[in-house]
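User: For my dataset I need records formatted as: sequence, then structure tokens, nothing else. Please produce one.
Assistant:
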Amino acid sequence: MILNCTADGKPTPNITWTVGDINKHFGSSFPLTITGKQDEGNYTCTADNGVGSQSDNVPITVESKLNCYSLPSQNNVKQ
């Protein structure tokens, strides 16, 4: 999943992604790999150009963990 954030302004704003109080990524797109509950939280995009700033939140909630199972190959099944 990729979170995208865009902003226009003069001077051109810098974009920062944060999770909670931690700066996680600088730039307009944030590649997000969800591996479990530890990836939950409010992801905040902030655009700041030194004249002003604006932020928006994207709440991420992990509902359940994906379980994958290996099935026998059709080639291994005897008839």
